[in-house]
TrEMBL record:
The protein's name in its UniProt record: ABC transporter permease
NCBIfam families: HEQRo_perm_3TM (TIGR01726)
Domain of life, per lineage: Bacteria
UniProt similarity note: Belongs to the binding-protein-dependent transport system permease family. HisMQ subfamily.
């Protein structure tokens, strides 16, 4: 596992960077979808509330690996069909990084929807009613009252979703992305030392988890400054 010409250290570190990159893209994609779905769940329109409910129910009930396959082979079929119109022949695979990030983003968005929804429900109703009584339009009410306070309650749950996304990124190896888990498989197959590679992969995953966990805890403490907590 050295960093020299004969070692696999650089390959494992590069794969770790790919894991962090695809997990980060999927996480922020899920954050956008989660915010939209959470807002829809509070809408006065029945169709929007039903759509948000269907989104969270379906995506949390389907295995993550199945979602990745559906995104990859579905988008590959579309690309192949479009390419056939221009004379191309055969199957054209979709970019593994993009489809993988979108897949785990859609899945994580379902979980983040519930996190954001719970954070909004935890807000004191009096403050929202006071903002409405003051004449604040909905967007201003959201920006000045709902968003700053809901973010405080959402940080712990969002941290848990990040850990989930990080572990889901290992599933993207099935569509050809060389991330940390896939690189460990390649290295163990080439050297016939599976224990060393999988142990190294576990250590790198734990390192990412530890660093990101510390970041979320610091963000939570900073967000909760000046807030009295029940003992």
């Amino acid at each position: 596992m050295g960093l020299g010409p004969e070692g696999w250290g650089y390959d494992m570190l590069a794969a770790t960077g790919t894991t962090v990159a695809v997990a980060t893209c999927g996480f922020f994609t899920g954050a956008v979808l989660g915010c939209l779905a959470a807002a829809a769940s509070f809408s006065r329109y029945v169709a929007l509330r039903a759509s948000a409910k269907a989104y969270t129910t379906i995506l949390r009930g389907i295995p993550d690996l199945l979602v990745i396959y559906l995104f990859y082979f579905g988008s590959s079929s579309v690309i192949s069909a479009v390419a056939a119109l221009f004379g191309a022949d055969g199957f054209i695979g979709a970019p593994a990084f993009i489809t993988g990030a979108l897949a785990i983003g859609v899945v994580s968005g379902a979980y983040q929807t519930e996190v954001f929804r719970g954070a909004v429900l935890a807000l004191p109703r009096g403050e929202i009613e006071a903002g409405r009584a003051y004449g604040m339009p909905p967007l201003l009410l959201f920006r000045r009252i709902v968003l700053p306070q809901a973010a405080r309650y959402a940080i712990p749950g969002i941290g848990n979703v990040w850990q989930l996304v990080l572990k889901e990124s290992a599933l993207i190896s099935v569509i050809g992305l060389v991330e940390l888990m896939r690189q460990a498989q390649i290295g163990s197959g080439s050297t016939r030392q599976p224990f060393s590679f999988y142990l190294t992969a576990a250590a790198l995953y734990l390192l990412i988890t530890f660093v990101s966990g510390r970041g979320f805890r610091l963000a939570e403490r900073r967000a909760m400054r000046g807030i009295r907590r029940a003992v």
